[in-house]
Amino acid sequence: MKKVIAIDGPSGAGKSTIAKLIAQEMGFDYLDTGALYRAVAISLIKLGLNEEASDEEIAGALNKTEVKFNNGHIFLNRQDVSSEIRLPEAGHFASVFSARKPVREFLMKTQRDSAVHADIVAEGRDMTTVVFPQAFKKFYLDASVEERKKRRSLELISKGFEVNEEKIRKEIIERDERDSGRDLAPLRKTDDACLIDSSGLSIQEVLNKIMGIIRGS
C-alpha cells in the first residue's frame, strides 16, 4: 500500500474541500468516500429500499450496483451522478445505509484498492479507524454545529435551493448522532489523529495548519 493521508470528521466540517487541496499540494490522488456512500444510497433508493430493509435485501440490491470514483466524478452503473449525490436526500440515506454491514463490506475493497498503486488523501467517517488504520498521517476535522449549519445553508443557496436553517441544524445533529452512535465503525477520533477545529477559520488557514503538521513544521 502507498502513502495515505486519512481525514475523518462530521458532515460539514470541510473534509472534502481540504482533502482536495491537500491532494493538490502533495501530488496525491483524492478519494471522496462520502461520494461512494451517497452513490450506493441512491442505488438502494432507486431499487425500492429504505431504512427498514433487511441486510439480505440490501446485499441483493448491491449485486445490481456498480460504483466507481474517477477523476473527481462518481459513476453509478456507468452513469455520472456527481450532482445527484449532493442532494439532501442522498446525504440522509448515505448516513442511514452506511451503518449497515453489507454496504460497508461492499465499499471496503473499493476504498482500499485506491491506495494500492497511488498515494492518496482519503476522507470520510472511518478512514483513520477502520479503512486505513496504518495511515501515514491521520486528522480529525471538526466544526461547531452552527458553523456547519451556515456552510450547508450557503451551499444550498448557491445551488438555487430554498433553505430552512432550523431544519438543517436539526438534520446535522441527527446525523452526528447516527454516525457516532452506530455499532458498526462509528465516527470517532483516534488517539493518534490530529484534531483540527475549522470553526471560524478560512479554508487557507485550515490548509496551512494541516500542511504544517504533514511537513513537520
Q: How would you describe what is shown here?
A:
It is a single chain. This protein has a single domain, classed as 3-Layer(aba) Sandwich (Rossmann fold). It has nine helices and eight strands. It has helices at 15-26, 33-46, 55-62, 88-97, 101-113, 127-131, 145-158, 165-181, 203-214; strands at 4-8, 29-32, 67-70, 73-76, 79-80, 120-124, 137-142, 194-197. It is globular, with a radius of gyration of 17 Å.
Task: Give the SSE layout.
Elements: E1 4-8, H1 15-26, E2 29-32, H2 33-46, H3 55-62, E3 67-70, E4 73-76, E5 79-80, H4 88-97, H5 101-113, E6 120-124, H6 127-131, E7 137-142, H7 145-158, H8 165-181, E8 194-197, H9 203-214
Helix pairs in contact: 1-9, 2-4, 3-5, 7-8
